[in-house]
Write a structure and sequence with these properties.
By secondary structure, the chain is mainly α. The protein has one domain. It is built from nine helices and no strands.
């Protein structure tokens, strides 16, 4: 009888936990699809993207690493090494003569969570955008807006709306039509 009661308890626990487990598996699958798309967009082999995921970078930071590495003409691990030493994203970019203006994305409509960055861009003429300061979150947001907009062929303003909660994988999933997969 103890075994039967234990089996029922285990089955009940599995019933309660299963939706969370399934959601986590779906989340991992969505992240894998997102990272595959990132690698394809930046022309980076899947194995190299996988290595980047092991360096304690968020999924949202991997496009930043690849964009900076591409713009600077250096391997991604060089960019990651600078980040791991505590350098900010804009500091790393500037060390390769990549400036804030290189991250600007034209947005028709509200810049949403990027309002502060767009106010600073708007306060200067485009030739002075190199002097605009961006927080790490703003730079990550700008890179991901560009990536999602261009890779999925959707307006940047739509991407900004989807990124409102900050989850780039979820935004990619919704914008790519894979939501609910």
């Amino acid at each position: 009888m103890w075994k039967a009661g234990r089996s029922r308890a285990a089955a009940a626990l599995l019933f309660v936990l299963a939706p969370g487990v399934l959601e986590a598996q779906r989340g991992n699958a969505n992240e894998a699809v997102f990272l595959r798309a990132v690698g394809e967009y930046f022309g980076t082999p899947a194995g190299e993207v996988t290595v980047l995921t092991r360096w304690e970078l968020s999924a949202a930071e991997i496009p930043v690493v690849l964009r900076l590495a591409t713009r600077a003409g250096v391997p991604p691990d060089v960019v990651v090494a600078q980040r791991r030493r505590g350098a900010g994203w804009l500091e790393i970019a500037r060390s390769y003569s990549v400036h804030a203006g290189d991250f600007h994305v034209p947005i028709d409509g509200s810049p949403g969570f990027l309002t502060g960055a767009y106010e600073r861009f708007g306060a200067r003429v485009a030739s002075e955008w190199r002097h605009v300061s961006l927080s790490d979150d703003e730079l990550v947001g700008l890179v991901n807006v560009r990536f999602l907009s261009r890779s999925l062929g959707v307006p940047a303003s739509s991407v900004v709306l989807e990124l409102g909660d900050g989850d780039v994988v979820a935004a990619y999933t919704r914008l790519s039509g894979r939501d609910g997969a």
